[in-house]
Amino acid sequence: MTALRDRLIRLAGGEPAAVRPLTRALRANARGQHAMLRESTRRQTVMSAESLHVLGLVLAGLASVILVLVTVMLRGRGDPPVAAIALCGAHLLFLTTAVVGQIVPALLCDEDAGVLGWWPLTRRDVLLARLATVLIPALQTTLALTALPLLAFLFTGRPPVAAMLLLTFAILLQTLVVAFGTAVFTTGTARALGPRRARRLASLFVDNNISFMPFLLLPFGRTLVGWVRLHPGVLDWLPPVWFAAFAAPAAGPAALRGMALALSLCALVGVLGWRVASGGGGAPATAALQTAKVHRHPADLLPWLLRPWMRDREGWVVSRLLAAHLREDWRFAGNLLMIVAVAAVMMWYATSLRHAGRDAAEALLLGGSQTMLMLVMALPYLSTYSSSPRALWIVALADLDPERLLAAQRGMVRGLAVVPILAVFGLRALSYGMDPGYVAVALALMASEAEVLLLIFQWFQPEMAFSREFTRDQSSQNIVRGFALAGVMVLATIVNLLAITYLPVRVALLAGIPLLFWYLRRRLARRVAGGRLNLAAVAD
Amino acid sequence: MIHLNSLSRHFGQLVAVDKVTCVIPSGVITALLGPNGAGKTTTLNMLTTLLEPSEGTASVAGHDIRADGPAVRRAIGYVPEHGTVYEGLSADEYLELAGRIRGLSSDEIRSRATPLLERFDVAEARGRRLGTFSKGMLRKILVTAALLHRPAVLFLDEPMDGLDVRSQKELADLLGELAAGGTCIVYSSHVLQQVEEVCSRVLLIHAGRLCWEGSLTDLQAAHAGHDLRDIFLELTADRTADRTIS
Predict the structure, then answer these.
(1) Are A323 and A302 in contact (CB under 8 A)?
(2) Nearest beta carbon to residue A32 from set B84, B89, B97
(3) B209-241: per-residue pLDDT in tens?
(4) I need a surface site. Which of A150, A158, A497, B98 has the fewest CB within 10 A?
(5) What's the pLDDT band for A286 if we cut at 50, 70, 90?
(6) Residue B236: count of CB within 10 angstroms of its CB
(7) Residue of chain A with shortest Cα separation from B99
């Protein structure tokens, strides 16, 4: 096995004596970093990389059962076969999410250059080691997702056995091409953009944001499906589908052409792309000196726009920090952009009459409030993090009032999320001819819920905005918080449903929430009085 | 031995290093001095193959930095000023990686690393993850990793930064022993007192250009026996040097 591995490494142009120890070290480093993260987290609410991978495998296994049902139900239907497309699409989605999150940031940031740029290693050795760390998890994901559906093709394929064999080959090929292609594309991009821009681009992919991206296609779903129906030939361009189509007797020469193209593309990625991305024996270049002047940025307008909700000295500090992070902290900006994009899609979906069904008011209230809840929980959580919290030492030394700092954070969420959502929701509801009285009550209810949830969030995490450092991969923490957020959202949705259905619940909520708000605010003020809001950690 | 031949590096219009030509001999510790932004780190980055020169070239231990980068990297050890490490690795795992990459066996790595770690008083912490190390401890590990393969040329960028007094003395003694054994050592620092104690030759760079090359005693003799600080201030007094490409 070792001899085979060494031969493969040499075939790819690497040196086994360098690639093997480096691969071992990269794996040990990933384990060590998660262990350190767990040790430094108070409640240990962090999943290890292994646990995260196992969770991914479980999800892939569950998805595979659905794919088996799809395969059996859609047997013999469509040309090219719909079940094969579903299988290949799901595989591509799972695999890309797994691979991109694991190696793209490291490659774009050229993390290894700072550690071993002057060591006797070629760029190819480093790239191969990074790939090796991801190839085994990628193959495990492939196995968990596709093993059962491929077995189903054994009986339902067209023709049965050949369809399964060809699809198995195509899926394995897709696994290798995605892994190699991602590495090749990323390295090529990093070389083309230069270190600084590549690092900024990497910040958009660090926290598994790519898994949300298919969700952003939702508004264009109908248009896309309609276009594909008009141009069915386009599916011949999806590499694994070519193989599936080849197995179908009706596919004809188009499938053969497609398969030849698929193989050519794979060869192109595997050979030419690999040579371009990993070529040149030299070490990766270090960042060039930055001599450009700093220009004004649209984010500089934010402190003025948020002024109505962030009035005092503490509000000014938090709003300037927000503007600075949007301008310079691409990881924060990328994450915020993704949250806002997802919220915009949710909002579009919730306020579109097409999806409202029979009761538009109910759909609007539920959809709007869910978007609001998501943002109200996600924004304060995200704004706790920064890539450079140590820069806050100057804030830590100032005599700022903790309660007003928290109030500024709430004001920030109000200005960024609550008010815009209420405005969109209100205008959309009125444009649908809904009763203005009903809309006003709904808006008041949503705003009150948002305020209470903000206070509850701050009760559990009373921390100064931007005072906590982003960890290497935030997704393991985000998942745990995401589960908690989902629980709160389900609870709030049930309450909202009851409020929509029963008038007394609505009245009780409207009367009770201000009281709850007053009580929580008072308790929070007492809790944080004289505290440091995590600012002591800045000097750590 | 290192030969620099019209070595230059531009960043856009800025000339960071301007046609530096000199020889750095083996068996002595050569200080690389200069004010902030003079081009010291850029020079080190080029000599360690981290950065491609814009013009000119250099040879390190007989290997051309442009044509034979891998051979240069095999011959050198480097302790960068802001050295990053894989923080999840323990010191032992990191040293194992550094040694393995250079073709050493586990036994060789252990036998070479242990005396150095003991000398720097970090042997007890070798099982700990590097992310938990202080700045000084990390520097000791970086020095150990740079010396594992007994390099012919050693580059050090502010090596004493973060070290306690005892470790500074140990490192200075160690560098003296290595130089006596024929190693070519380039020592970049802003702390002139340390330079006077450790180095016997000086390369002074100002505004990307070489201002002085020679022994420390010659430098002091040429400037009427003034101390190094006064000489440094005198040689780098011109702050209006044009550094754009003409």
Answers:
(1) yes
(2) B89
(3) 998 888 888 888 888 767 888 888 888 887 666
(4) A497
(5) very low
(6) 18
(7) A21
Beta strands in A423-496 (DSSP E): 468-469
Per the structure block, which two tokens stand in for A118?
């002057």
Give the N- to C-terminal CA distance of chain A in Å, as an integer: 46
Domains detected in chain B: 2-241 (3.40.50.300)
Q: How many CB atoms lie within 10 A of CB A298?
A: 9
Reply yes or no on whether the pLDDT at B32 is more than 50: yes
Pairing mode, strands B63-64 and B14-24: unpaired
Contact at CB, B100 and A288, closer than 8 angstroms: no
State how far the Cα of A528 lies from the Cα of A458, in Å rounded to an integer.
10
d(C-alpha A75, C-alpha A122), whole Å: 49
Q: How far is residue A316's CA from residue A308's CA, in Å, rounded to a whole number?
A: 11
Taking 80 as the threshold, does the pLDDT of residue A436 lie above it? Answer: yes
**pLDDT one-digit tens code per residue, A24-50:** 999 899 888 888 877 766 655 566 666
B97: nearest Cα among A430, A115, A353, A424: A115
d(CA A40, CA A390): 17
Yes or no, beta carbons of A33 and B87 under 8 Å apart: yes
Alpha-helix runs per DSSP H in A80-230: 82-108, 111-116, 123-156, 160-193, 195-202, 221-230
Amino acid present at A502:
Y
What is the CA angle A356-A359-A362, rounded to 5? 85
A282 touches chain B (CB under 8 A): yes
Q: Is B83 helix (H, G, I), strand (E, B) or coil?
A: coil
Q: Is B24 helix (H, G, I), strand (E, B) or coil?
A: strand
Q: Which residues contact A428 (CB under 8 A, 6 or more apart)?
A: A351, A364
Prediction ipTM score: 0.88
With the C-alpha atoms ordered A417, A420, A423, A427, is the resulting torsion angle positive or negative? negative
Q: What are phi and psi of B212, to 5 degrees?
A: -150, 140
Mutate to test the interface with B, among A27, A112, A118, A122 (most CBs of B within 10 A): A118
| Nearest by Cα to A322 from A422, A392, A247, A426 | A392
- The residues with which B204 forms a beta bridge, in sequence order, are B33, B212
Q: B240 burial class (0-12, 13-18, 19+ CB within 10 angstroms)? A: exposed
Q: How far apart are CA A205 and CA A207, in angstroms?
A: 6
Cβ B160 vs Cβ B69: under 8 Å:
no
DSSP A502-522: -HHHHHHHHHHHHHHHHHHHH
| SS3 per-residue string spanning A432-474 | CCCCHHHHHHHHHHHHHHHHHHHHHHHHHCCCCCCCEECCCCC
- CA pair distance B237, B246, nearest whole angstrom: 22
Whether A215 and chain B come into contact, CB under 8 Å, resolves to: no
Q: What is the chain B residue with the closest CA to A290?
A: B11
Residue B155, strand partner residues: B78, B186
* Amino acid symbol at B122: V
How many alpha carbons lie under 13 Å from residue A14 in its C-beta half-sphere?
Answer: 27
Buried b (16+ CB within 10 A) or exposed e, A93-120: bbbbbbbbbbbbbbbbbbbbbbbbbbbb
Helix axes A160-193, A82-108, angle to 10 degrees: 30
Searching chain B, which residue's CA lies closest to the CA of residue A16? B101
Phi, psi of B206 (to 5 degrees): -135, 130
Residue A33 identity: Q
* SS3 assignment, position B90: strand
Distances (CA, A) of A267 to A180, A181, A255, A273: 11, 11, 18, 9
pTM of structure = 0.78
The two three-digit tokens of residue A316, written as one number: 């000014």
Tell me the one-letter amino acid at A508: A
pLDDT of res. A359 = 64
What sign does the dihedral A63-A66-A70-A71 (CA atoms) show?
positive
